[in-house]
Design a protein that fits this description.
GO molecular function: calcium-dependent phospholipid binding; metal ion binding
Protein name: CPNE9 protein
Distance between the termini: 22 Å
CATH class of the largest domain: Alpha Beta
Family: Belongs to the copine family.
Largest sheet: 7 strands, mixed
Strand content: 25-35%
InterPro entries: C2_dom, C2_domain_sf, C2B_Copine, Copine, Copine_C, VWF_A, vWFA_dom_sf
Helix content: 10-25%
GO biological process, one term: cellular response to calcium ion
Number of domains: 3
Shape: globular
Number of helices: 12
CATH superfamily of the largest domain: von Willebrand factor, type A domain
CATH architecture of the largest domain: 3-Layer(aba) Sandwich
Structural class: alpha+beta
Length: about 550
């Protein structure tokens, strides 16, 4: 919009700046008259994680003779919440730098950024719009039953279950779902189940879906009853019409001339559904698709575009085990040439999350220190020394307050997490309608002192819109922290289990680049600790049946 007019007889062509060329590799022929409009093009460059190198990703179409070009060509990029995806847009009048997360996190996915390049001149602005591709976001719920399946057990009937396979491009099949086993019956009714369409057919509605019918055996040598093939498109027709699939056993078909089938599979919509297991039986064995429904699956981007804000809070360990900040051996020591491990962890996580917070104001606390003037120990003191408003302006503001606190407080102990977790949980409890989601980053060097209280705080917080990231710095062993990361066993306290897994713990040492590249170290750390945030946010929204607001 409003590009700088560099031409005398014609409007600027956004693909040219007079007398200069950019690294986009575009060249202008000097043979053309200045009044002749030149092709306009914007070039997108991307920067790899932890790299300073820019690579061309693509170019828009050409537009002639306008100061307000509207480009039609879209760039399709893979989006990763946990990565800082830097983009650069170039033309010959200027360039603009932006992170993909900034565009997605802006109101309605629409961001306007000034072009810079000609000293002392306004080069205009570039307007960026981001939208998520909606392909393959549906989820299917279906229920099946069967009649007159083959009898496989000597002393009983059969214990049938179904196995669904998605076909691959190379002709092989990948298992994508198993039903439960229904014991001792030839007329099983399986429970309804839900599966993403992308898992069932990878978004290709005509791709083959193979379904095997097995008889369960305790020793794992399940007996094959038969199989049939269908597709998502064919299954979806069962919403309105009756469909029957024969279940065939290829081995039996080869051996027995009179073999017909090992059952049939049929599907019907709400009207005319056949009954399974009781009442009048069909002439041949059959498996019936009792119900088939499709719903859209909401994504993390849906909620962000609908206005959900990520509120970022920091809590930093000021216990004495970190060492004197003035000494190079201290984990808080920052040399003139590199940041401390605490500062690196803070920047790695904060610089990504801040793109999804509109006001860029971040509450920041310290714990485990003696505060002036009376030396009182505190486990949730504001780094900006303002208890009424502990927020700092941007990640740089948090870093500034952190460094200032190192000069004024006395590192002490113990290492207590519960107070700051409860502090953020209190804020999260104020707004639970899905418009706000809180992320607490705790950076610590040692063994937790209040494990019981912390587990109780986590269990209570799991019902609230919040997540907790714990980054361990230094050489200490962090076995206790692994217990708080509920990936394997859900955190529990006094007989209560956490509603959701909301804690992610990582030791920073696992992500340090040994060549000394701090940018790469931060990228590695952020990618791992932030990867679970979108799913944790979605799990909260789903358990509360909160749908994203429409972007206005």
């Amino acid at each position: 919009r409003n590009l700088l007019d560099m031409d005398t007889f014609s409007k600027s062509d956004p693909g040219r700046r007079q007398g200069r060329t950019r690294e986009a590799g575009l060249r202008r022929s000097g043979a053309r008259h200045r009044s002749a409009p030149l092709p306009a093009v914007v070039v997108l460059f991307v920067q790899g994680a932890g790299s300073s190198e820019w690579k061309e990703f693509g170019r828009t179409e050409v537009i002639d003779n306008t100061l307000n070009p509207d480009f039609v060509r879209k760039f399709v990029l893979d989006y990763y919440f946990e990565e800082k995806q830097n983009l650069r847009f170039d033309d010959f009048l200027g360039q603009a730098f932006v992170a993909l997360g900034e565009v997605i996190g802006s109101q309605r996915g629409r961001l306007e950024r000034a072009l810079t390049g000609v000293p002392g001149k306004r080069c205009g602005t570039i307007l960026l719009l981001a939208e998520e591709l909606s392909n393959c976001r549906d989820i299917v719920t279906m229920q099946l039953c069967a009649n007159k399946l083959d009898k496989k057990d000597f002393f009983g009937k059969s214990d049938p279950f179904l196995v669904f396979y998605r076909s691959n491009e190379d002709g092989t099949f990948t298992i994508c779902h198993k039903t439960e086993v229904v014991k001792n019956t030839l007329n099983p009714v399986w429970q309804p189940f839900t599966i993403p369409v992308r898992a069932l057919c990878n978004g290709d509605y005509d791709r083959t879906v193979k379904i095997d019918v097995y008889d369960w055996d305790r020793d794992g040598s399940h007996d094959f009853i038969g199989e049939f093939a269908t597709s998502y498109r064919e299954l979806s027709r069962a919403q309105s019409q009756f469909t029957v699939y024969e279940v065939l056993n290829p081995r039996k078909k080869c051996k027995k001339k009179k073999y017909v089938n090992s059952g049939t599979v049929s599907g019907a919509g709400a009207a005319g559904q056949p009954r399974c297991g009781t009442g009048a039986q069909p002439a041949r064995p059959q498996v019936t698709l009792l119900s088939f429904s499709v719903e859209s699956e909401f994504t993390f981007v849906d909620y962000i575009r609908g206005g959900t804000q990520l509120n970022f809070t920091v809590a930093i360990d000021f216990t004495a085990s970190n060492g004197l900040p003035s000494q190079p051996t201290s984990l808080h020591y920052a040399s003139p040439y590199q940041l401390s491990a605490y500062a690196l962890a803070l920047k790695a996580v904060g610089e990504i999350i801040q793109d999804y917070d509109s006001d860029k104001l971040f509450p920041a606390y310290g714990f485990g220190a003696k505060l002036p003037p009376d030396g009182k120990i505190s486990h949730q003191f504001p780094l900006n020394n303002n208890a009424e408003n502990p927020s700092c302006a941007g990640i740089d503001g948090v870093l500034e307050c952190y460094l200032q606190s190192l000069r004024t407080v006395q590192l002490y102990g113990p290492t207590n997490f519960a107070p700051v977790i409860n502090q953020v949980a209190g804020a999260a409890a104020q707004v639970t309608d899905g418009s706000q989601y809180h992320v607490l980053l705790i950076i610590t060097d040692g063994v937790i002192s209040d494990m019981l209280q912390t587990k109780e705080a986590i269990v209570s917080a799991s019902a609230l819109p919040m997540s907790i990231i714990i980054v361990g710095v230094g050489p200490a062993e962090f076995e206790a922290m692994e217990e708080l990361d509920g990936d394997e066993v859900r955190v529990s306290s006094r007989g209560r289990y956490a509603e959701r897994d909301i804690v992610q713990f990582v030791p920073f040492r696992d992500y340090v680049d040994h060549s000394g590249n701090q940018v790469l170290s931060m990228a590695r750390l952020a990618k791992d600790v932030l990867a679970e945030i979108p799913e944790q946010l979605l799990s909260y929204m789903k358990t509360r049946d909160i749908k994203p607001r429409r972007a206005e």
